[in-house]
Amino acid sequence: MKNKALSYLFYGIILLIEVIILSSCSSDDPEQVYTEGTNEYTNEWMYGQMKKYYRWNDAMPNQGDLSVNPKEYFARLLKTDDVFSYAMHPALPETAPKSLRQKFGFDISFIEYQGKVLGVILYALYDSPAKNNGLARGQLITSVDGVELTLNNYDSLYKNMTAATQLNLKLISYSAQLGFYNEKQVAISQGFSFTQPLLSQVITNGNTKIGYVEIPHFDVGMAKLFLQTFQELKNKQITELVLDLRYNGGGDIASATALSIILAPNIKSGDLFIEFEGNKNGGIVKQSFQQALESNEKNISFEALKNTHPNIQKVYILCGKHTASASEIIINNLSPFINVITIGEKTVGKDVAGFPVEDDRISGKKDWVLYPSIYKLFNAKHEGGYAAGINPSINADELENPEVFALGNRSEILLNTAINAISGNAGKAKMVKSHALPLSKVYTDADPLLVTP
Questions:
Q1: How far is CA 21 from CA 29, 213, 236, 298, 438, in A?
Q2: Which of 77, 89, 115, 152 has its CA 20 to 30 A from that of 278?
C-alpha cells in the first residue's frame, strides 16, 4: 500500500508540473511590451521586420540584447559581407549613409605621381556646392583643411571629408604641356544637388557616327528624357553607342528598364527582363519589360521606347568602381538581348534590391526606416551572382595619367579606348605615369535599388 501511495503522489506531482508549464506557455499570457521611444521598442520591431523580409533571414543571430543603440543593433543582424543594407532615422542625420556626393556633389580618387599623393576630382555634379565653388573634373587636391596629403594619411583624410560639413581644399591643375599650374584655395559647405542633366553628343570617327551618352543617375521619371535623347541620336543616324555609367550609383529600376527597352533590339513587352529572388516569405518574382517599366513609369509606353531604338548591334558601357545597382542591371540584364562590351574597371557588385520598411506604429511620427537587402537579382537567363563586381570586357584605368580630361572629351582614356575598340584599333601602348591608391573605406554610395513591395 505504501508503494502504491507513493506512486499516486509521484504521478500527482508530474501532473502539477505539466499544468504549470502549460499555464506559463498559454497564448493568453501578455507578451513583453516595451515603452515607446526606447531602444527595446525599436529593436524588437527591427528584428521582426528583418526576420520577415531580409534575404538571409535564416542566418540571422538570436534577438540578443535589445537595449543597444538601434543603428548598432541593426548592424548586428546583417550577414558579414552585406555592406548595402542600412537603417536610418529621418530626424537623425548622423544615421544616414555618408558620402562626398551626397554632401557636396563630388567625389575623388587618389593617385601617387612623382612621389606626391594627390586627390583627383572625378566629377562635380551640376549646380552642386562643389560645382558652384569652382570644382571640376581633373583638378587635383594637394591638402585638406591645411593638411597635406601623404601615403600615411590620405585614407583617414578621405574618411574625415565624408563626415565633414565644410571642406577647405587646396587645388592645383595639371596638363602635359604646362605641368602643375593654377594653385588655389576653395572652401565648400554642405548642400544639396538636384536632378542632373544627361550629357549626349555624336562623335564622328572616320565614316562612323558614335553616340555618347553620360547618365549620372537613374532618377524617377527619366523615361521621357531618354526618349527625347535617343530619338535625337537616332535621327542623326548613329551606328555605334557608348554609354557612360562609370559614376552612376543606381536609382530607380523603372528608369533603368526604360533605357533597356530603348537599347535592346527585337524584344517584346512580355519578354522576361528581371528576376527577384527573396527568402521563403518573398519567394521569386519575375518581371517582364512591361511590368518592370510600369512599376514606376506609367506615362511612357513600351512601344514608344522600343521605336526609339537606334541602328546599333552592340553597346559599349564605360564602368568602374562607382558603377552600381541599377547601372549593373543595365550591364547584366541587357546581355541576353544585345552584345554588351564593358570598358574600365570592375563594378561595385550590388546585386540586391529591396524596398523601405518604415516603423509607422505611431501615427504622424517619423521613425526608423530600414533599407534591407530583400532580393538577389538575375537576368532573363538566370545569370547574376556578381556580388564581387562585374569584370570589364576591356580593362582601362582612367587615372593612369595625372591629366584627366572632361567626360565626353575624346582624349579621355575610357572614351578613347571605346573609340579605338569601335574602329578596330587597339591603340598604342600608353606609358603609365601615375597609379591609383586604394581606400580602406567600403564603398557606400550605391543607391538602394527600390522595388514595389
A1: 12, 69, 80, 57, 59
A2: 89
Fold of 100-189: Pdz3 Domain (2.30.42)
Model confidence, pTM: 0.90
Tell me what pLDDT residue 126 has.
96
Beta strands in 125-165 (DSSP E): 140-144, 147-148
Q: How far apart are CA 229 and CA 223, in angstroms?
A: 10
Among 68, 67, 80, 77, residue whose Cα is nearest residue 34:
67
Q: What is the pLDDT of residues 176-222, one digit of tens each?
A: 999 999 999 999 999 999 889 999 999 999 999 999 999 999 999 99
Q: Which residue has the cell 587635383?
A: 140
SS3 at position 110:
strand
Q: ∠ CA 40-44-47 to the nearest 5 degrees?
A: 140
Cβ pair 323, 332 in contact under 8 A: no
Instruction: Quick: pLDDT tens for 81-128.
Output: 999 999 999 999 889 888 999 999 999 999 999 999 999 999 999 999
User: Can you tell me the distance from the alpha carbon of 299 to that of 273, in angstroms, rounded to the nearest whole number?
Assistant: 19
The list of the chain residues with pLDDT below 50 reads 1-29, 429, 442-443
The conformation of residue 428, written as its DSSP 8-state character, comes to P
At 328, the amino acid letter reads E
Whether 199-431 and 100-189 are alike in CATH topology: the answer is no
Provide the Cα torsion 350, 355, 361, 363; round to 10°. 120
Question: If you search the block for the grid coordinates 558614335, which residue do you land on?
Answer: 210
Name 318's Cβ contacts closer than 8 Å, sequence gap at least 6: 242, 243, 244, 245, 246, 342, 343, 344, 414, 415, 418
Q: Where are the domains of the chain?
A: 36-76, 100-189, 199-431
Do residues 446 and 320 lie in contact, with contact meaning Cβ atoms separated by under 8 Å? no
The CATH number of the domain covering residues in 199-431: 3.90.226.10
The answer to whether 225 and 217 are in contact (CB under 8 A) is no
| C-alpha cell of residue 169 | 581644399
Strands 240-244, 208-214: pairing is parallel
Rg over alpha carbons for the chain, rounded to the nearest Å, is: 27
Measured distance CA(78)–CA(81) in Å, rounded = 8
| Contact predicate 289/257, CB 8 Å | yes
Burial 306-322 (b: 16+ CB within 10 A, else e): bebbbebeebbbbbbbb
Query: Residue 162 — φ and ψ, nearest 5°?
Result: -70, -20
Q: Which residue has the cell 526609339?
A: 308
